[in-house]
Write a structure and sequence with these properties.
Elements: H1 3-26, H2 36-40, E1 54-57, E2 61-64, E3 67-68, H3 69-75, H4 87-96, H5 102-114, H6 120-128, H7 135-145, H8 151-158, H9 166-192, H10 206-214, H11 220-230, H12 239-249, H13 254-265, H14 273-288, H15 295-307, H16 325-337, H17 342-361, H18 372-381, H19 390-411, H20 424-433
Antiparallel strand pairs: 1-2, 2-3
Helix pairs in contact: 4-5, 5-9, 6-7, 6-9, 7-9, 7-13, 9-10, 9-19, 10-11, 11-16, 11-19, 12-13, 12-19, 13-19, 14-18, 15-17, 16-18
Bound molecules: carboxymethyldethia coenzyme *A.
Carboxymethyldethia coenzyme *A binds at residues 238, 269-271, 273, 306, 311-318, 363-366, 370-372.
Length: 434
């Protein structure tokens, strides 16, 4: 058994009694009340999910296993001479709750390496699809097609004890995560670089290998590590994490769940916002005549977008009420490596202007930028100008968090999701009685 799996097993055995005690002895204790506006309004803020992988504080932003983003970047082991930590180390942290040693990270690296060969039928499938399909559709289809490899599905079919569900789920998760960077990079090179595929380099880590297979030089390896870490998890209620959890709660295996996660991420109000930001910025430039807009011109364009009934992509959040620390971490990277980049200056100008306009408009509960406002600009700077690929990279990162959550959900026996719906008439009855 790998060090990671042994550690995880130890953690699971220690954790199970806590969940069982809550259920058995405190199952009737009230956690929340639900209003009509929450029922109609996308279940916003209803406390009805549990995860220990990450927690999103509206003011402070995300913590992974209790660690803030700066702490994660500081504490996790890094490849020699690099500024960003190994993604493998983050995965160890998400799964076990502990900061790994270099030896622990090496163990995860070798686990991923052993499992990294992508079946030929996946490449054949991708090549058989029209090249103008959105890369998220290609990505999701490739992940779904690998369902054939699921150990969980096989073991479930043969009969397996509930307490053991986590075991083949863990194997599926590692098998899938090991292949995801290559599938994503393959889609990129096939679709946007005239089919000039770059084979993986077995000497590189997960993030470094992705940069290598994309064909982008340093410091894009660190960009990739940072990007995947920042996008890995955002507690359980966001669309991608939630749909991953929901699908796997039916004991659909991780391939089905991860493909669904990618489909949810493909919405413009969620992961697709990073491509929308670049699209919107390009439109501003065209509109203003390819020059740097003055603050007043920018303000007006933001207003025009709002008045035409559209959202400002990259701004606002369902939970956060401050600037997203994932935005800040990327901004710091930009200030260090690309502070004279024209698009970065643009994004910084937006940071000065958009929150004021959104506040003046008075609708958005959070006028501050989210992760998507900054990420596309870094990718653009390093030559990835095909912005419909950006959500694929979000998906590569998000797979780490969703996989960790699904393994733990199976380990703790979380139930099939089944909230209750009401009719409008029933809601009216409840409302008018008051
Ligand atoms: N631009 C314009 N209007 C906005 C806005 C924005 N950036 N953010 C919120 N609003 C509007 C909402 O559309 C809503 O309008 P209506 O009352 O007319 O329906 C109102 O403000 C209140 O919304 P809210 O409670 O503040 O925000 P929600 O929880 O409903 O939605 C989100 C959150 C992210 C979908 C929304 O802020 C948005 O559409 N942002 C732009 C898209 C984006 O950046 N998405 C990425 C989020 C991060 C991620 O998941 O990747």
């Amino acid at each position: 058994m790998s060090k990671l799996k042994a550690k995880l097993h130890e953690k699971i055995v220690g954790w199970r009694p806590r969940t069982q005690r809550l259920l058995k002895e405190y199952g009737d204790v009230k956690v929340d009340e639900v209003t009509i506006s929450q029922v109609i309004g996308g279940m916003r803020d209803i406390k009805s999910l549990v995860t220990d992988i990450s927690y999103l504080d509206p003011q402070e932003g995300i913590r992974f296993r209790g660690f803030t983003i700066p702490e994660v970047i500081e504490k996790l082991p890094k490849p020699a001479g690099k500024e960003m930590p190994y993604v493998e180390g983050l995965f160890y942290l998400l799964l076990t709750g502990e900061i790994p040693s270099q030896e622990d990270v090496d163990d995860v690296i070798s686990e991923f390496k052993k499992r990294s060969r992508v079946p030929q039928y996946i490449f054949d499938l991708l090549r058989g699809m029209p090249r103008d399909i959105h890369p998220m559709t290609l990505f999701s289809a490739a992940v779904l097609a690998m369902q054939r490899e699921s150990l969980f599905a096989k073991e479930y079919h043969n009969g397996i004890h509930k307490n053991e569900y986590w075991n083949p789920t863990y194997e599926d998760a590692l098998n899938l995560l090991a292949k995801i960077p290559q599938i994503a990079a393959y889609i990129f090179r096939m679709k946007y670089r005239a089919d000039t595929i770059i084979n993986p380099d077995p000497n590189l880590d997960w993030g470094g290998n992705f940069a290598h297979m994309m064909g982008v030089d340093e410091p894009f390896d660190d960009v990739s590590r940072l990007y995947f870490i920042l996008h890995s998890d955002h507690e359980s209620g966001n669309v991608s994490a939630h749909i991953g959890h929901l699908v796997s709660s039916a004991l659909s295996d991780i391939y089905y769940a991860m493909s669904s996660m990618l489909n949810g991420l493909s919405g413009p109000l969620h992961g697709l916002a990073n491509q929308e930001v670049l699209n919107w910025i390009q439109n501003v430039r065209k509109h203003i005549g390819n020059k740097t807009p003055t603050d007043e011109e920018m303000r007006q364009y933001v207003w025009e977008t709002l008045k035409s009934g559209q959202v400002i992509p990259g701004y606002g959040h369902a939970v956060l009420r401050k600037t997203d620390p994932r935005y800040t971490a990327q901004r710091e990277f930009c200030l260090k490596y690309m502070k004279d980049d024209e698009l970065f200056k643009f994004v910084d100008q937006l940071y000065r202007i958009v929150p004021g306009v959104l506040l003046e408009q008075g609708k958005a509960k959070n006028p501050w930028p989210n992760v998507d406002a900054q990420s596309g600009v870094i990718l653009w700077h390093y030559g990835i100008k095909e912005y419909d690929f950006y959500t694929v990279m979000f998906g590569v990162g998000r797979a780490l968090g969703v996989a960790s959550n699904i393994i733990w959900a199976r380990a703790l026996g979380y139930a099939l999701e089944r909230p209750k719906s009401l009719t409008t008439e029933m809601l009216e009855e409840i409302a008018f009685k008051k």
